[in-house]
Amino acid sequence: MPSVLLRSNAARWAGLALSIFILLLLAAAGVLYGSKLFSLADFTGALTRFQGTNDQIIIKDVRIPRVLIAACVGASLGAAGVLLQALTRNPVAEPGIFGLNAGAGLSIVLAVTLFGTASLQSFTWIAFLGTALSGAAVYFLGSLGRGGLSPVRVTLAGAAVTALATSFIQTVLVVDQRTTEEVLFWLSGSVEGRKLTILYHVLPFMAAGWAGTLLLSSPMNTLMLGDDVAKGLGQRTVWVKAGMAGCIILLVGASVAAAGPIAFIGLIVPHLARYVAGGDLRWMTAYSLLLGAIMLILADIAGRFVAMPNEMPIGVMTALLGAPFFIYTARKGLSR
Description:
Elements: H1 9-32, H2 40-48, H3 54-88, H4 100-115, H5 120-143, H6 151-175, H7 177-187, H8 196-223, H9 227-232, H10 237-259, H11 265-277, H12 281-306, H13 314-333
Helix pairs in contact: 1-3, 1-12, 2-3, 3-8, 3-10, 3-11, 3-12, 4-5, 4-6, 4-7, 4-10, 5-6, 5-10, 6-7, 8-10, 8-12, 11-12, 12-13
Keywords: Cell membrane, Membrane, Transmembrane, Transmembrane helix, Transport
Membrane topology: Multi-pass membrane protein
Pfam family, one: FecCD
């Protein structure tokens, strides 16, 4: 098996075009397939000749929003994974493993409990704050001790922050039943039942994170040569790292606000992108955006059929694939 699937730029451009085509096919499948099946005629009729029938309402108000949200969240988590793995030089770096998802979730739980916060816009900003604080805590804990920051230490710090935040969340949910009812919608890690109004609130932040990641992909290539080399080439490494951290906060915070904590997409997607297009972060970023969207839509579709007529939360589906992948990557990467 070749270490890189697509070796020429022409092949990589063709691969991007194919990825977009696959994404569109899966988006169509996400609208048409589920506990109730629809045809293309049903889909086009709901968009062009809407008459308010039950089938048209399901297509327009349920299926289309969940596909769009899954695509945007998947793209955001894929890009965040690339940024985290490049920033920490850690092959198992991922928003869920590093405590960013749990920190954002805890901040929303505390906001609802202590301040009665209920607006979608407030949840978005609160998720940003929780992501930033948990990320700072992981960085601080991972940097303690002799030798400073290392892949093993930062991974253990992320696991500790995740465990702490999760325990706090469970405690609050047990004590305050009202909070349980209001925030369980976000903590389930699912796109089921989400409305387009949620996407309207978070899409500008996601788009800013996508654009920032693409713009930083070239400076990140230089940064991966090492801080000393990058500085010798005239790069302001502090500003590049600050930009990367800012994009991570935008992408992860917006994703948690939209769909709750969904793990392992940010772990798997960058490795797939590296296998397909190589280690150039410009190509990895572009592929991670598309592969993240593809993977989360595919997980959503699979979750509809695994427990038919019920649905499996999308977070469970990503965990079923992501947990073995994490073990494999940790054994391969952290042992070096």
